[in-house]
Amino acid sequence: MRRITLFAAALAVAAPAIAHHGWSSYDESKPITLTGTLTSVSWANPHGSATMRWQGKSWDVILAPTSRMDARGLTEAMIAPGQRISMTGYARRDGTPEMRIERVTAAGKTVELR
């Protein structure tokens, strides 16, 4: 019974790490900048996310953890849906319209997130 309990505990700890994506799937050698209007935003942990229409595609955007965004001066109101912003970061290597962002320019302010 003890082995089953230990196995279950180890699985519970490892599952979120396995489910969470790594950064190696993004091409850091080719930064891109998207400028447009956000269609959705999730201000949540382990990191925020957003969606933006750009060049005819709906892009998923991986933001930083909310504590980092707050600490760096990026507020939830600055990136609310409907806001026009610019984001610079790295697209996925496989061509999926998704990016991990490094910098946001919103409400006249540029914020470094990484």
UniProtKB/TrEMBL annotation:
UniProt entry keywords in alphabetical sequence: Signal
Taxonomy, superkingdom: Bacteria
Signal peptide: 1-19
Identification of the protein by name: DUF5666 domain-containing protein
